[in-house]
Amino acid sequence: MSGHLTDGWEPGLPVGDTLLRRFVFNLAAFHEVPAVAAGGRVLRRDDLAAADLGRPAAMHNAATLLRPLPFDRPGPTLDAIEAFFDGGAGEVYLWSAWPTPDLRPRGWVLEGHPPLLLRPPGDGPVPPAPPGLRLERVGGPDGLRDWERVAVDGFPYRELQPYRPGALLAEGSWPTSGCGCGSATSRTSRSASGRCSWRPGWPPSRSG
What we know:
The protein has three helices and seven strands, in the order H-E-E-E-H-E-E-H-E-E. It is of the alpha+beta class.
């Protein structure tokens, strides 16, 4: 056999090539958007994306692997991640859609296994909310602070507790970030859950 046989993770492949590729790049953008909006730093390479808000921010200070970490030579990718966050304060998360070598000798600790969330494509009707649950788009400082409190107390974000307004999100940075937030409120709880999204195509592709 001659020629290159794709492994599905070359940088030139469309993001929409597979469901998992879409998820990985979507997760990378989820971390980049708040960092850029808050004046933080981002790094985008063929093998990883990293975002640093410049202050403790739990999972929002994170690196996302954009291709599987090579078991025989993980050092260069991990060196780049650790150098990017060197000198900072607070936790840093490393997100991988694939198994990795044992990273404990480098100081990393296993946190958990987040789910792959899927929303079917198409313009079909959205299923109705369960009785007693109200979904709404967050608007204004009060709504933003409710969403922020849900994130800090609900996950929980240990390093940001006890919750203080502005502990996670800088209010003035959001109007130009392309971000939007939503919350779910039930009859028995002020805020049952929260989510965040961004406008399609943002941020633009970068390399570094």
